[in-house]
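Amino acid chain
________________
===
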Amino acid sequence: QVQLVESGGGLVQPGGSLLISCAASGDILNINSMGWYRQSPGEQRELVAQISSSGVTNYAEPVKGRFTISRDNAKNAVRLQMNSVKREDTAVYYCNADVDYVDTDVQSMERRYWYGIVHWGKGISVTVSS
């Protein structure tokens, strides 16, 4: 199976910077798009930023010019550099990846190939407060 594990969250002051990271593990063949979503209390989960396998990026309007998404394909990792953070950036941030991978059926012991399966991390808390 594929797992996504986020790291680097915590408390940051308004106007400060924070880097959060996510690494994918498992029997991975290829990762297509990777991205970050966030969810504030009482709100729906929303896209923050996405990056394709070729490096094309897409940002939500509220974070454009402040956040930068990048990925390390060799490490199956994605990062989000958050600069000039605001109180409204406070949320749980979730890593997301569209993955091609292989696993083994436990009964038949046959290898199974999966393509374009979306995986999520468990989320990491980011709090912007003075």
Observations:
- The first strand starts at residue 3 and ends at 7.
